[in-house]
Amino acid sequence: MKKLIILSIGLLLAACQKHVEPPPPPRPALVVIAGESAANNAMVLVGEVKSRYESNQSFRIGGKIIERKVEVGSQVKKGQVLARLDATDTNLSAQAASADVRAAEASYGLAQAEVERQRTLFNKKFISASALDMREAELKTSAARLQQVKAQAAVSGNQSRYTALIADRDGVVTQIHAEPGQVVEVGAMIAQIVDTKQIEVLVAVPESKMAKLKVGDKVAVKLWADRAKTYLGHVREVAPAADSATRAFDVRVTISDADEAVKLGMTAGVRFAQDEVNEIMIPSTALTQINGKNTVWVIDKNNIANPREVTTGQFTEAGVVIKSGLQANEMVAIAGVHTLIKNQKVKPQMAESK
């Protein structure tokens, strides 16, 4: 009986003892070593291909167009006639001005002869000095009148020549805003000529990127129509003031080796090369958020995982730039970061470098 009681007590005590489970093995964790890498802090902006010279051609007088000699796409040379106005009225004005000149010349000649006669009479004491002075004043008036009508005749002659619209540069016609029979005002644009030999890209640069941008900086240009080819260029002009609507600065970039593939109006990407800087970049999969803050899991020398808040920079195809919160040569987890626990022991496995 005593043996039975002792055996029962032993079994009861054995049942009351807590079973101690062995600690789980360290969890495998895919990690990388954060390191500094030289990154080109380049700025890429999109712009429009334009000509350096875009000249709006217009008549210097108003009138009715009777002829237009070019079409959109026409190649023109400097001095070539683009259009003509009806010159009937201007020719009549020029003829009237020429007649006025001839009349003024006759009046001047008569006044000059009269002065010579009056001087002869004055020398012989036949007339008074005041009579001579009167004739000399008439001569001066005739001379001034002659100069006036000659100037008016020159203006009338210019008006006659202005009935022909002459190209002021070599180029191609890109716009036309008038047709034969149309009455146009002074200065109204008839056609636009652009110089296809000097091609640029117009880009709008944000004010935050203007600090290091200057005239002469080298750039690389790629057309959206053909991203395989890169053109060389440089910054030719930087606007001194920002656009009032966009608050960006207009920058013109000259393409040094433009070919026939570069067409006006195309979209182009411009890469502004800037100084290389050392920065810490990690794979984007290493970044997570805890309580709305960007966080990475850092593995210490004892293989313990702990979260750490970081400040991120630019996101690229290669990863994300860490501005602060992480030092070079620290180990960070890049897979399963959403399931890690603070102070969890892990078994680091280095990721293969690509």
TrEMBL record:
GO cellular component: efflux pump complex
Domain Multidrug resistance protein MdtA-like C-terminal permuted SH3 per the UniProt entry, residue ranges: 278-337
Record's signal peptide: none
GO molecular function, one term: efflux transmembrane transporter activity
CusB-like beta-barrel domain ranges (all copies): 202-275
PANTHER family, per the entry: HLYD FAMILY OF SECRETION PROTEINS, MULTIDRUG RESISTANCE PROTEIN MDTA
Family classification: Belongs to the membrane fusion protein (MFP) (TC 8.A.1) family.
Protein name: Efflux transporter, RND family, MFP subunit
Protein species of origin: Methylotenera versatilis (strain 301)
